[in-house]
Amino acid sequence: IMTHTNELYMGLGSALYALAKTDGRLQPEEIENVLQALNGEPQLAVVLESFAVQDRYNIPVQEAYDFAFRRFQVNRKQLDESTKKHFVDVMESLANAHDDVSRKERDLIKRFRRDLNKL
């Protein structure tokens, strides 16, 4: 059974995948940073599974991003300010996995923050 929290973290996994794919390829350091940022969280497995499924089917960035926001929209009552901030922090930790945070990655994080704040 999917809880609201799991749905939110499924969305986060999808958003992280979209971010990782904006520069065209997944890098091992990116996955490593996500693991560190979510270390000890009970929903880590949900995030990784969501991420892995998107990757397995090579889902386009926009589609993965839209999927994430459908999850967030449906479960927005559970999406409080601290959760939103945490999700943005996790996205930033993924982008910072390598020195050269691309403009595309920065733009996606800005958009992510803006879209989350609208919910």
Describe this structure in words.
- The protein has helices at residues 4-22, 28-37, 44-56, 61-74, 81-95, 103-118.
- The longest helix is centred in the first third of the chain and has 19 residues, at 4-22.
- The chain is built from 6 helices and no strands.
- With 119 residues, it is an all-alpha fold.
Instruction: Write down the overall geometry.
Output: globular
Q: Portion of residues in helices?
A: over 70%
Number of DSSP E strands? 0
User: Which H/E pattern describes the elements?
Assistant: HHHHHH
What amount of the residues lies in strands?
A: under 5%
For the largest beta-sheet, the strand count, sense and barrel status come to: none
Low-confidence stretches: none
The helix-and-strand class reads mainly alpha
What separation lies between the terminal Cα atoms? Answer: 24 Å
Computed over alpha carbons, the radius of gyration is 13 Å
Report the total helices: 6
Q: For the residues shown, what is the average pLDDT?
A: 91
